Amino acid sequence: MLCGDKTVDKILIKGGKQLFGEIGISSAKNAFLPILAGSILCSGNVVLHKYPKYDDVTNMVEILENLGGKKKIVDDALMLDMNNLTNFEIPKELACLTRSSIFSLGSILGRFKFAKVAYPGGCEIGARPIDLHIKGLQALNVKVVDRRGYLTCDGREMKGGNVHLDFPSVGATENIMMAGVLAKGKTKIFNAAKEPEIVDLQNFLNRAGAKIKGAGTSTISIEGVKSLHNVEYTPIPDRIIAGTYIIATVMCGGEVTLNGAKTEHLQSLISKLDNNSCKIITKGDKIKVTSSGRLNSIAKIETMPYPGFPTDLQPQIMALQTISKGTSLIVENLFETRFKHTGELIKMGADILIEGRSAVVKGVNKLYGAEVVATDLRGGAGLVLAGLVADGYTTITNIGQINRGYESIENDLYSLGADIKRING
Ligand code: EPZ
């Protein structure tokens, strides 16, 4: 797949249907990706169950194969032979496909003591610098040369150390955690990100023989070990996909049960929606959503690091606010240009005013179907939700962005009764 590959397929939606039924939630993209990066540390066989067919994950597996890993898919499991890795480089044509290429730096250094990795790709939702990754590795005595779009790293003198993150960056936390696994001595990360996907990475690495504790809190400790061994693991379900379908049901009206979702990962969303003309009942790994389809606006939504409201659900909750009764203020604190989808929502009749990192969303009675473009992964998902409630037909192009993080958003929603399909471009 080429960087910025423009899939010519489109999604066509006829709005107005309520949603009913049950849906299973697939593995978390943002857990699977760092776990794949962590597989580089394992001199053995890695078996990962519930292998999701997201393009970002497929591209990450291609990166592992380029390093010398061998892959086999058996039923729903991805089997990786990581015994004979022969290459410590990630070229730009592979690195640009996903943000998680940069997460591999720490594990390549742990395995080879050298690494040469091109700048990463990922959604264009901001500058997305990598300074915290670089500073963190330098704190572990790694020599980093940042030139011509490549990071060339010498980790021969690498050793455990203390890393204070200026911001609780998810990727930097994961990268430094992985760099510490095979480093001599102890590494501590302060002001670490606390996302559930980081806990999942810790659990995966510890099962392979690592000694990590504290993931899920702001201080993580890693005791260096000699090597990691064979490991079999099932990553957590995708809380952002689950949140997307909760919001879809709330918007369309109806009754949908999500199976396999982890309720505790969705508290910030559920607390904003429950009892606002919709009912959300959670029981074990099931979440049942019942909705009349017409909600009151949520006065203020601020995206924050976990456990705050997730930035990856910001476009989707904005779509809900465009048809809610009243006015909502949405503040995007994580990424400086994560409002590109608002222009597309306005084409559909939404009333949104942007001022810097704030969006004032005035609810309208209805949206109108239109031809819109998926600007990025979650922006595209937000447009799908808007299309489900719009009057008439909505066509969404550039849906390769959506394929990066959903196996088939159209099949999932179709199975719940939506009038939605993929059409060849
Ligand atoms: C991860 O990206 C996720 N991606 C993103 O999901 C998610 O939006 C983000 O975390 C925040 O939760 C994956 O896990 C593959 P960050 P990441 O480093 O690690 C700044 C999706 O839709 N920063 O936590 O890149 C950065 O600019 C994607 O699934 C630096 O300044 O996010 C941003 O403002 C989109 N310097 C803030 O930190 C750095 O070196 C949070 O970024 C690194 C980050």
Written account of the structure:
- The chain is of the alpha/beta class and 425 residues long.
- The protein has two domains: 10-26 and 237-423, UDP-n-acetylglucosamine1-carboxyvinyl-transferase, Chain, CATH 3.65.10; 29-233, UDP-n-acetylglucosamine1-carboxyvinyl-transferase, Chain.
- It is built from 14 helices and 24 strands.
- The strands form six sheets. It has a four-stranded mixed sheet with strand order 22-23-1-24.
- The two termini are 18 Å apart.
- The model has no long low-confidence stretch (mean pLDDT 95).
- The chain binds ligand EPZ.
- Ligand EPZ is lined by residues 29-30, 33, 99-100, 123, 126, 128-133, 167, 169-172, 193, 311-312, 334-335, 377-378, 405.
